[in-house]
Amino acid sequence: MTLVNKTAVLEIRDLRTSYFTEGGEVKAVDGISLNVPKGKTLGIVGESGSGKSIMALSILRLIFNPGRIVAGELLYNGADLLKKSEKQMRSIRGNNISMIFQEPMTSLNPVYTVGEQIAEVYQIHENMNKKQAMSKAVDMLRLVGIPSPEKRVHQYPFELSGGMRQRIMIAIALACNPDVLIADEPTTALDVTIQAQILELIKDLQQKLHMSVIIITHDLGVVAETCDDVAVMYCGKVVEYADVRTLFTAPKHPYTVGLLNSLPRHDVDKEELEAIKGSVPSPFELPEGCRFAPRCPHAAKICFEQLPELNKLEDRSQVRCWIYTDKWGQQPEVNRTP
Amino acid sequence: MKTELLNVKHLKQHFPIKGGFLGRIVNHVKAVDDISFTIYEGETVSIVGESGCGKSTTGRAIMRLDEPTSGEIIFEGSNLLALNKRQMNKKRKDLQIIFQDPYASLNPRQTAGEILEEAMEIQNVVPKSKRRHRVIELLETVGLAAYQADRYPHEFSGGQRQRIGIARALSVNPKLIICDEAVSALDVSIQAQVLNLLKRLQREFKLTYLFISHDLGVVRHISDRIIVMYVGRIVEVADKTSLFEHPQHPYTRALLSAIPVLDPDRKKERIILKGDVPSPIDPPPGCVFHTRCPYATDRCKEEIPQLRTAEGAAGGHQAACHYMEEIQNGSMERAYS
Amino acid sequence: MFQYIIRRLLQTIPVIIGVTIIVFLLMHLIPGDAAQVIVGEGVPQEQVDQIRENLGLNEPIPVQYFNYIGGLLQGDLGDSIRSSRPITDEIFTSRFWITMELAVYSTILAVFLGLTAGIISAVKRNSAADVGIMIIALFGLSMPNFWLGLILIQYFAVDLGWFRPSGWGTWSQNVLPVITLGTGGAAIIARMTRSSMLEVIGQDYIRTARAKGVRERVVIYRHALKNAMIPVITVIGLEFGGFLGGAVLTETVFAVNGMGRYVIDSIRARDFPVVQGTVLVLSLMFVFVNLLVDISYRYFNKRIDLN
């Protein structure tokens, strides 16, 4: 197994997004290159502060002051999104590339009915009048599995449960049959039985509508269940990029391994969790060399001095770690506990 | 021999809903509806369930942060609900609670040291002259450094703040600590540190935990016994291994099957429940789970199942379902899958 | 909705009763003998007794109150001591309407200016326009309106001669008092709108709207403004009430013959029944406007349905 080798519908090349604050420049996304293969799912994993959500918003160019996309290319069907005008970009948002967010409770406008909010997408992108758009909204509600859609379409968000609202968000995002769906922590705020429903729904609709999905999450379980390729992010950089099976069976970066080992499991008993020591560094005081070095159990001198490149390995996965280079003498045991 | 520390009997917590012309009480949110359970000294019991199942309400009711509607909460032989306010405040020395959001539960204008000293002062556990010394001892116990005593909550990271919350709970030498989603807001790598800390403290100080969480991975890791709640009722109680290996109640089965596993190759059989959790305002009659249960029959719609031990299940493993045996031996048909 | 309006109306009844009690007690809070105070010093005792008898001050207080309420229910606010005419006639022939016009125009001005400035400030946050608007708003807020009135008269009426300095009724008479009264309110509404808009613009659903491809102008006016209006509406309601009170000064400065000036004159003349009557009418207006605010809330905030 290797990274999905399929035409990329979206290619992210050396994307850099920074926030210019009083404390200085925060490189939230610091040179990221990824491919979103057609019809497949790319997972982006990381903890808070890894820059994963900002990277997602950058794809739609929804970065506002004091943030700015500083450099990079976003090739969507070969054309660079960063070179498009704001008007062209608007016709892509919600139409060709859509996004759903973590908090279904707050992501819907409280003063409009869910029907109006879905219909708006058709009014913007397909020039429909309100009546046509509302009837399409009912169809969308049915598609995302909302019971009695004719009635629900006239309800306000507060009248619906969290799971229902996330279905509404999905209906809004998929209304115009996009090529790419970006799902930013789509199930984090939901209960586990509802999470299962929503993930199933996304997978199901992905097949039906032949779209690519980018799932951004901190939950490795969600990644294992839904993704084809996975990128692990830490402090604005990709530290490991591999297909899902390679990532879970042969994780390489000590951070990835640390994440897997520190996770309490519902299917295995562990006496002590192997926690990663310390905490994510402040974005104003990033370490000189490898950003994970201060927390890494294997860190050597070079790790504190030089930032490693994202190297391609034999199994075609990519790792940003000195251990996997010829500058490293002896390879230590970097293993996932069973 | 195990000693009972806490015994909750027929606890009910119904919150009134007001409405109508004159603000009459029109209905109740039956957040907790007649639950009973026991916690023994030195063990960790977890309550798991989804939002609105009443798990946090139970924790708050035990602490009497909300006054329960009825029931008994026997702590070391005396009923907490029969105590007056002053007696209860004194009792709170033995019962402490840690909340999910460490930032919201720490006074932003107090330093870590002041927060801990105040806790000691309220319960008067350490003479004034020795409090400073004890603060430093506590900080070191929870993995913080002495110099951090003079810092304010906003100067700490989320994980460190939760450590302060733990130190505050420890400062009065409690017997029972209720952890209400105490690690839910933390990143995985930090969560592991805090879980390890809680386990270590339990060994060192012989603590008893009531751990309230929605995260089954965390619950498996920390608990000895587990209570599963659904819409205000207990649907299953068992020791950890028995619950995870041989879940009896169809809700527990669905819950366990819904958790994503860390192995892309293992496609496990997943039970995806239809619909949403019913509202605790008008919980379904009979078994509260019958609206979503793939096995539900007419009997489930009418008769409330009592907690009982299924034939062949481990001792102490109880669940509230009419058809555990039939589901186990495969003679029940699923209405959907 | 209908049920809600009925309920809100019922809820105002105790408020109105409270208002009448307080207004009624005004007469009894005057230190010493009310009748004596009204007629002043050096008047024969018989005349004082006569006034006392006319005002019914010899009855026990509860009886007096019920007589008062009985009068109110028939639209009788008592008679003015100065003119001996019914106060209802004195107020509602023209004065009430003049004050209402002044307050309504000022509210319209304040809402229009305040909302526009607040929205611009919020959308162009930290820009020169934002800073400028907020500085002007601070001036508007801290300037006493009688002083502003005097400055406006001096500059626009006396020096430039664009408007007439006094009276009410024609366009050139109305402009200056409305500006005088409306400015402070506009400043408050602008600040409120700004902070409310900023909060709403940071909300997740605004991000959702942008991610749908909605144009920025539509994001602001359709998605943000309706949510941001919820706290602003309250302020507008309070401002309207404030204008009724502010009318006292403004009407005096511009010699407008409305309720405000009538109150002042009556206080000077110790015509307490008139003071009582005007205060009652103004208070009831205030209660009524707040009722309207509460009802309009429902239009903006659907969630109130649940509570």
TrEMBL record, chain B:
InterPro entries assigned: AAA+_ATPase, ABC_transp_ATP-bind, ABC_transporter-like_ATP-bd, ABC_transporter-like_CS, Oligopep_ABC_C, P-loop_NTPase
GO molecular function, one term: ATP binding
GO biological process terms on file: peptide transport; transmembrane transport
Keywords: ATP-binding, Nucleotide-binding, Transport
Recorded superkingdom: Bacteria
Domain named ABC transporter: residues: 17-256
Pfam families for this protein: ABC_tran, oligo_HPY
Family: Belongs to the ABC transporter superfamily.
Protein name (record): Peptide ABC transporter ATP-binding protein
Organism, as annotated: Paenibacillus abyssi
Lineage, uppermost ranks: Bacteria, Bacillati, Bacillota, Bacilli, Bacillales
Gene: oppF
TrEMBL record, chain C:
Protein's membrane topology: Multi-pass membrane protein
InterPro entries, alphabetized: BPD_transp_1_N, MetI-like, MetI-like_sf
Coiled-coil zones: none
Residues annotated as domain ABC transmembrane type-1: 96-293
GO BP annotations listed: transmembrane transport
One Pfam family hit: BPD_transp_1
Recorded superkingdom: Bacteria
Keyword Transmembrane annotated: yes
Ranges annotated as spanning the membrane: 12-30, 102-123, 135-158, 170-190, 230-254, 274-293
Localization (cell): Cell membrane
GO CC term (a single one): plasma membrane
UniProt keywords, alphabetically: Cell membrane, Membrane, Transmembrane, Transmembrane helix, Transport
Matches recorded under PANTHER family: DIPEPTIDE TRANSPORT SYSTEM PERMEASE PROTEIN DPPB-RELATED
Family: Belongs to the binding-protein-dependent transport system permease family.
Entry protein name: Glutathione ABC transporter permease
Taxonomic source organism: Paenibacillus abyssi
Phylogenetic lineage: Bacteria, Bacillati, Bacillota, Bacilli, Bacillales
Designated gene of the protein: oppB
